[in-house]
TrEMBL record:
Pfam families: NUDIX, NUDT9_N. This is Nudix hydrolase domain-containing protein. Gene3D superfamilies: Nucleoside Triphosphate Pyrophosphohydrolase (3.90.79.10). CDD domains: NUDIX_ADPRase_Nudt9 (cd03670). GO terms for molecular function: ADP-ribose diphosphatase activity. SUPFAM superfamilies: Nudix. It comes from Meloidogyne hapla. It comes from the Eukaryota. Residues 117-267 form the Nudix hydrolase domain.
């Protein structure tokens, strides 16, 4: 199965210096487009962003220790934590911290992310076709509204240590869009036929110079038109609500989810802006 990855385009959402970093009073320093690559000149001023790791993640069982030097990066470690990047080997800074393979973000540390380096997530695009009022087929997917940013988003979340990405995507969909962890046997044919939409780095507002999000996004499509007809959507976990939305031009979603939906739509022979 082929892996679709973003080319190394400039990240934008994780360089926003006009407002504080998530749930903090800390601001990123401005980083111009031509200053993003690590090997680029930062101009007359040296690159000295603030170092920020939220106190709320200190000591949490799913979070790394403050000292990055105790970890072996670019490997799956002994605890089953995947510290590999889809984009190859990443370098470390002078303090032994991973460096974001897509360049500077204007903020060091981990922010609100648990892991140094790649933080792996899984996203589930659950989709179907319905007939519109004019009789034409309309492509729909299940979306949630995030409770932290109130953005429309694809259901998904962090992959647990040792967990398979496909299993994580299914689990997260049940937690966020069905408000339970029980796998519905009636949907087993859909779950086992999940197709990769994308695997790799995502331009996420949580990203920093030393911690970043990478995702495995899967499409679970009901080709029969019947399996999802009576699907009882009910938001759970960190979602405010869940609903079916129609895939159209100009769909605005959280972080890089708009791009993921474009890739998904293309898989179904639909081009959207």
């Amino acid at each position: 199965m082929s892996i679709k990855m973003f080319c190394r385009t400039l990240h934008i959402k994780c360089r926003d210096s006009t407002k504080p970093y998530l749930r903090s009073k800390v601001y990123r320093i401005p980083v111009k487009d031509d200053q993003v690559p690590w090997d680029s000149d930062f101009g007359e001023c040296s690159y000295t962003p603030k170092d920020y790791t939220a106190k709320t993640i200190h000591g949490r069982p799913w979070a790394d220790h403050e000292d990055p030097c105790i970890y072996t990066f670019n490997h799956v470690d002994g605890a089953g934590i995947n510290r590999l990047s889809f984009h190859g080997v990443y370098s470390l800074d002078s303090k032994g911290r991973p460096r974001n393979p897509f360049g500077r973000t204007g903020l060091r540390g981990r922010g609100v992310l648990g892991r140094w380096g790649p933080n792996h997530a899984a996203d589930a695009i659950v989709s179907r076709y319905i007939k519109g009022e004019d009789g034409r087929k309309m492509l729909q997917l299940v979306a949630i509204v995030r409770s932290d940013t109130e953005d429309l988003a694809i259901p998904g979340g962090m992959i647990d240590a040792g967990e398979d990405a496909l299993e994580a995507a299914i689990r997260e969909f049940h937690e966020e869009a069905l408000s339970n962890n029980v796998l519905d046997d009636n949907l087993s044919s859909v779950w086992k036929n999940g197709k990769i939409v994308y695997q790799g780095y995502v331009d996420d507002p949580r990203n920093t110079d030393n911690s970043w999000m990478e995702t495995s996004c899967f499409n679970f499509h009901d080709s029969t038109g019947n399996l999802f007809k009576d699907l009882n959507l009910k938001a759970g976990s960190d979602a405010k609500f869940a609903k079916w939305i129609t895939v159209t031009n100009g769909l605005k979603l959280y972080a890089s989810h708009s791009h993921l939906v474009k890739l998904f739509a293309k898989m179904h022979d639909m081009d959207i802006d």
